[in-house]
Design goal:
The protein is of the alpha/beta class. Helices cover 36% and strands 13% of the residues. It is built from 17 helices and 13 strands. It has helices spanning 32-42, 71-76, 90-100, 114-117, 122-128, 153-159, 180-203, 213-219, 224-231, 266-275, 290-295, 297-308, 313-322, 333-338, 340-344, 396-404, 408-416; strands at residues 23-26, 46-51, 65-66, 69-70, 80-84, 105-108, 133-138, 208-212, 248-252, 258-262, 326-329, 348-351, 368-371. A six-stranded parallel β-sheet has the order 5-2-1-6-7-8, sandwiched between helices. A three-stranded antiparallel β-sheet has the order 9-10-11, with helices on one face. A two-stranded antiparallel sheet has the order 3-4. Helix 1 (32-42) crosses helix 7. It starts with 22 loop residues before the first strand and ends in a 5-residue tail after the last helix.
């Protein structure tokens, strides 16, 4: 890993991260690539996000807004320094390649072939820095008959078979209210970058990390592929439960809320039976084993649903917890933020945009809560040093001065010709 000096925007009260000293250049827009960059920044890397002066990341306009500030952006651009630089110009490409010479990782999420079209493909980057790791995040990967197609999370979830598994049999398969395929691809790209950096420690050479949204969505599908390959079984959507895994479902309580009860192991089912005042269920041949409970899943769900409906949600969870049955509520985000477990672990942390001052956008930018760094590391935890800066190009002068040694006259000339803004 290349050691770089601390950067000017960092706060002093954030513990060093495991990737402290790593420099990352992030190209691309929206969620998958920037999410990989965010995860690297969470762990302490100096992430420099490069946006075209005339085409900033559309993610800046996503999510709920206040005073012109989008909170989706705060979370996905946190811990990043934002630089405006036009890679479609010769001057912009030269600046980018000078930055590459100082970097450990480049993350890009353009359609395959875009970097090559701009004259900054991996062959060029590798000549400048043989140790560079290039993470390429795209819809379908860098090769194959679909590689040139544009890719979005919704289509990736569909083509991978993931969407087919969601919802209820015979109904249109719904999507979760998140860009799940993007986030999965960003996580797999992050994982690939870490593995490539470890390999670089042995070989001294960087490499390409090729992460596809479609393949990330496919990779989490448990045994669907071997099940089909060897038995011809096509797993189907199963609504609120898993087929033949019982009991593991959600049940409506007396006060109209939903509670999840997962007691599909024999020992757990015995505890649930005791909590229900029906210890006989654990020895009933219809329910005594995992296979038997799968065979009688519908009647078992009906029995538990009728019992659960006699309790308010809080009372039901308290009772089941006393008997050490796996259980929990189906929370909204409001209930999540009030949950004592998350708060005891200090999961929610402040995101502050240092580029905003009182009155700049018509409101006083109070810190906004977001989810902190996950997982927690005991020695090099990292943290949220700042939220994503609202203004495009906030750190352009800082980065080019600090890293490349540009003076004010050179910055002014670049700005006048439109290379930076």
């Amino acid at each position: 890993m290349t050691t770089h000096p601390p950067f000017a925007s960092a706060t002093t009260d954030t513990p060093p991260g495991a990737l402290d000293g790593l420099r990352v250049l992030e190209l691309g827009t929206l969620i998958a690539g920037p999410y990989c960059g965010r995860l690297l920044g969470d762990m302490g890397a100096d992430v420099i996000k490069i946006e075209a002066p005339d085409r900033p990341d559309p993610l800046r306009d996503w999510g709920q807004a206040e005073g012109g500030h989008q909170y989706f952006w705060s979370v996905h651009a946190r811990n990043k320094r934002c630089v405006n630089l036009d890679l479609r110009t010769e001057a912009g490409r030269r600046i980018f390649l000078d930055l590459v010479a100082t970097a450990d990782v480049v993350v890009e999420s353009f359609r395959p072939g875009t970097l090559e079209r701009w004259g900054v493909g991996y062959d060029v980057l590798r000549e400048i820095s043989p140790r560079l790791v290039l993470a390429r995040v795209s819809g379908y990967g860098q090769t194959g008959p679909y590689a040139a197609r544009p890719g979005y999370a919704s289509v990736a979830e569909g083509i991978s078979g993931l969407r087919h598994l969601n919802g209820f049999p015979g109904q249109a398969p719904p999507r979760i209210a998140l860009s799940l395929g993007d986030s999965l691809a960003g996580m797999f790209a992050f994982q690939g970058v870490l593995a490539a950096l470890i390999a670089r420690g042995r070989t001294g050479r960087g490499q390409i990390v090729d992460a596809a949204l479609t393949e990330a969505a496919l990779a989490i599908q448990e045994s669907t592929v071997p099940d089909y390959h060897k038995t011809g079984h096509v797993r189907q959507p199963s609504g609120t439960r898993l087929d033949r895994v019982a009991p593991s479902n959600l049940y409506r309580t007396q006060d109209g809320l939903w509670v999840i009860i997962a007691a599909n192991q024999d020992t757990l089912f015995a505890r649930l039976s005791a909590a229900m005042g029906r210890p006989d269920l654990a020895t009933d041949p219809r329910y005594a084993t995992h296979t038997a409970r799968g065979d009688h899943q519908d009647e078992l769900d009906t029995l538990i649903a009728e019992w659960a409906a006699g309790f308010p949600a809080a009372e039901l969870i308290e009772l089941l917890t006393k008997f050490e049955v796996v259980t929990g509520p189906v929370n909204t985000v409001a209930e999540v933020m009030a949950d004592p477990q998350f708060n005891a672990r200090e999961i929610f942390v402040d995101h502050v945009d240092p580029s905003l001052g009182p009155g700049d956008t018509g409101f006083d930018p109070e810190p906004v809560k977001g989810v902190g760094v996950i997982p927690k590391l005991s020695e090099t935890a990292g943290g949220v040093r700042w939220g994503g800066p609202s203004r495009p190009g906030t750190h352009t002068d800082e980065v080019l001065t600090e890293i490349l040694g540009y003076d004010a006259d050179r910055l002014t000339a670049l700005r006048e010709q439109g290379t930076i803004s």
